[in-house]
Amino acid sequence: MRVYLDYNATTPVDRSVLAAMMPYFAEKFGNASSIHSSGQGARDAVDAARESVAALVGAKPSEIVFTSGGTEADNLAIFGTAAASRKSRKHVLTTSIEHHAVLHACQELERQGVEVTYVPVNGQGIVDPDEIRRALRPETILITVMHTNNELGTIQPIAEIGRIAAEADVLFHSDAVQSAGKLPLDVTRLGVDLLSLSAHKIYGPKGVGVLYVRSDTPLEPQFRGGHHERDRRPGTENVPGIVGLGKAAELARTQLTEDAHTIGALRDHLEDALLEQLPAIRVNGNRGGRVPNTTNLLFSCTGGEALVIALDLHGIACSTGAACSSGAVEPSHVLTAIGLSPDEARSSLRFSLGRPTTGKEIDRALGIIPAVVERLRALSPRSLSVETVQ
Q: Regarding beta strands 348-352 and 294-299, do their DSSP bridges make them parallel or antiparallel, or are they unpaired?
């Protein structure tokens, strides 16, 4: 039995999602922009999916823009608002623990002459809204802060930051890729102008995502072409993918409470048992304010990459951090931002559970992980210091 514990990286396509998508690969293949009946059938399917996604986040269907995924949604939000701003000097606020889709976009803005402030977080991985307030400037055009961190699972005080942004008349974007299906989402309550989602994190297909854009929010499209998505994102719609995203959004909304309860109990069992069975490990981040499926653990005196490989050989799939950073030599920027040393960051693993995870799988993982950790520690030149690590 293989045990998959890397659902923050990606999820399997739900069978009902796949069933909803299948007709649009073959017999219902029309272009949603065509005016004949085949095209209009595809348009109806896209519109129905738009309504399902809007319902998931408490938005109007007209405020939903389909993209190729979370990265494009983040980029469209950041570059699109910067390009639409009429200010001669421009300043963007973000945090030090954002996903690279946001961080690298902000770094590109800096190369274009936009000033960017990277607000630090505390040792729990949470940004202080007052730090956001203090960093605001007259030339600030955008605040972009993720809702849930992909490595730690920590939840940011988005609603409070949203109020700060509204008071300052500054646009506010949040990457909620890791929140959908795990937390209730309401764009009005959160106070966001833009919100990013990705289908493959909620049991939908890869290659499709969403940017919520509040009505009247200025946004310059980043592609040139047709008038798709109300002139905000040109290109022929990925009808099968959008249909799949719509069905996945429907399931995420209706199953959220049940999923959170079941998955949270399994995550807590895994985490508590490992903390009890192994010395010199601790939870990174905030144990209280997290999404229910994620734990990030520091296994002192081990190497994270070696541990991931060793566990994989025993049938356990987990991660050292963001999937987009797999193979990176540098330690996680998220873990160093919360105060871990480079060695500690490299000795940490993320376990993320999902809807298919079972108690039997967690028990199997618990039968394997401690022995693998102890074996690697015995081979480590740092093994003698295990007892001294708090």
A: antiparallel
CA 276, CA 351: separation in Å to the nearest integer? 17
Chosen domain end from 254, 279, 294: 254
Q: Are residues 305 and 190 in the same domain?
A: no
Enclosing domain of residue 299 = 3-10+256-388
Euclidean distance between CA atoms 57 and 157, whole angstroms? 17
Question: Digits of tens for pLDDT over the chain (390 positions)?
Answer: 899 999 999 999 999 999 999 999 999 888 887 788 888 888 899 999 999 999 999 999 999 999 999 999 999 999 999 999 999 999 999 999 999 999 999 999 999 999 999 999 999 999 999 999 999 999 999 999 999 999 999 999 999 999 999 999 999 999 999 999 999 999 999 999 999 999 999 999 999 999 999 999 999 999 888 889 887 998 989 999 999 999 999 999 999 999 999 999 999 999 999 999 999 999 999 888 999 999 999 999 998 899 999 999 999 999 996 555 555 568 999 999 999 999 999 999 999 999 999 999 999 999 999 999 999 999 877 654 544 444
**β-strands 140-144, 91-95 pairing:** parallel
Name the token pair of 302.
């081990």
Tally of domains in the chain: 2
Please give the full DSSP string across 292-333, using - where no structure is assigned.
Answer: TTEEEEEETTS-HHHHHHHHHHTTEE-BSS-GGGTT-SSPPH
Please count the CA atoms within 13 angstroms of the CA of 82 that sit on its side-chain side: 25
In this structure, how many other beta carbons lie within 10 angstroms of the beta carbon of residue 43?
18
List 106, 301, 318, 324, catalytic entry: 324
Instruction: Give the residue among 19, 55, 66 at the shortest CA–CA distance from 209.
Output: 66
- Examine the residue annotation and report whether 106 is marked as an active-site residue of this protein: no
Name the pTM for this structure. 0.94
